[in-house]
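Sat 14:20. Reprocessing the chain from the morning session after the first attempt stalled halfway. Input below, unchanged.
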Amino acid sequence: MSVLLIHPPVVKPSEPPAGLAKLAGALSSHNIPHCIVDANIEGILSLLGNAPGGPDRWTQRACRNSVRNLARIKERSLYGSFAQYGRVVGEICRLLDVSSAPYSVKMSVADYQHRKGSPVKSRDLLFAAEHPEENPFYKYFEKRLNGLLQGEGCSMAGLSLNYLSQALTAFAMIGFIKKRFPPVKIVLGGGLITSWMKSAAWRNPFSGLVDHCVAGPGEAPLLSLLGREPQGNVHYQPDFRGFFADDYMAPGFVLPYAASTGCYWGRCSFCPERAEGNRYTQVSPHTVTAELDRIVSDTKPVLIHLVDNAISPAVLRALVKDRPGVPWYGFVRVTDDLSDPDFCSALKRSGCVMLKLGIESGDQHVLDAMQKGVGLSQVSRALKALARAGIATYAYLLFGTPYEAEMEARATLSFAAKHSQYITFMNVAIFNLPVNSPDARGLELKTFYEGDLSLYTDFVHPKGWDRRTVRAFLDREFKKDPAIRQIIQRQPPFFTSNHAAFFAINNL
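Finished this time. C-alpha cells:
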C-alpha cells in the first residue's frame, strides 16, 4: 500500500508546496510508502519544452531563448536587473500562453484561466474530469500518472488544491485517475477545499468522483484514512526529500516553512480565516528554530519562506535568538517590536531580508473599523525602523472596503506617498467580500460572479465607493502618483513577492 501526493498546476513555480511536505512528513513518521509529484513545476516545464512556434517575432524569440531563459531565471545575477528579469519572465509566460491557447486557456506562471470553464462552477470542474484530454497538461500527466499508477502498489492519490488556478487541471487529473485506475481512492484537500467546505452552502458536488474531501490541516485525516491514528496534537516535521530541488524557477532552493496555521490575531473584519472559523495553532518557537536548523542542513536552501498568515512575535524573537543561517522572509503584523530600531537590526542580523506588511489603509478610522489593532503612527515607525535596518518591506494596501470612500482612499494615497522611501514593494488590491463573512450583515449583497463554489460576493457600497469607481481612482490617480509609480514599477512581474526577496538581497 502506498500513497501518491500531487500538487496540481498552476501555482508560481518558485518553490515546492509547503502543505505536501507536511503530509510527506506525517507519512514518513509512520513509515507509510509514498511518492510526491509536484505536477505544477513538472507540467510547466513539460509545456515549455514542447512549446510550438508562432508567427509573431515575440513568440519566435521566446522559443529560441527557451532553454536559456530557464537557465537565466536560476542565476542570481538576473535579479540585479529589472529590465532583463522582466524580459526573461515575459518570454517564459509567452510560451505558456501559446502552448495553452489551443485548449482555450490563457496561462502564465501565476494564473490559469479557461475561456469557457470556471473553477467556481462545479459543473465545469466535473466536465474537466470527464474530458481530461482537453486540458493543456494532459500529455504530461497521462504519461506521468500511467508510469506511477500501473500495477497494484498505489491505493490512494491525494491532491492538494489551494488556489482557483489549480482547480480545472486538478479535476482533469482526478478524472484521468478514476478512468484509468478506478481502485485508487481519491482524497482532495488544501486551502481551497477548506474554504469550500467551510461555506454554509457546501453540498459536496463531487461525491462519486472524489472519495474523501478534507478541510483544514490534512496530516491527521490522511493518517486516519490509512488506518493510523496519531496520539494527541502531534506535529510532524516537513519532509522535502521527494522534491526535485533544482527544477524550480529561482536562484537556488527556496524552503517554504509554516510555523502556524490560522492567524494569531484573528480579529480583522472580513478576514477569510475568521469567516471560516479556522483555528489558530502555533508550533512552539523552540521547535520552529530546531526544525529549520535540521531542514536547512539537509536541503541547503538559499532562502527560507515563512508561509504563515502572520509570523507570531514569539517566533520572530526565536529567530533573533537562534538564527537560521539563511536569508528569510515572511508576512507579519505591525507590532511594537517592529517599531523598535534595535529589534529590527537584530532581525536583519538573523537573516531577515524582507517582511510583508498588511497595512491595508492610510486612514485610522478605516483601520479601527476593520479591527486591525494597529495605529498609523506605529506603522510609520515600523516602516522607518525596518528600512533603516536594511530590511525590505512589501506593503499590502486594500481599497474599497465598506468603511472607505474617496476621502479615506486619498488618505491612503497620502500616507503611502509620504512613506514611499521606506516601502520597497507594494501590492494594491480591491476588496472582495467573503461570501460567509459575519461582518456582511447590513450590506446589500449582489452577485460577484456566477458559480456555486464562489468564495466572494459583491455588495452595494454604503458610501457609493463601488469597484468600478475604486478601479478608476487607482488607475487614474493612485498609480500615477510619481512616488507610488516608482514603487509599483519595482514589483517583479508574475512572480511578485515570491521573487521580490531576491531583488532585496541584491539591494534593489
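The longest strand covers residues 352-360.
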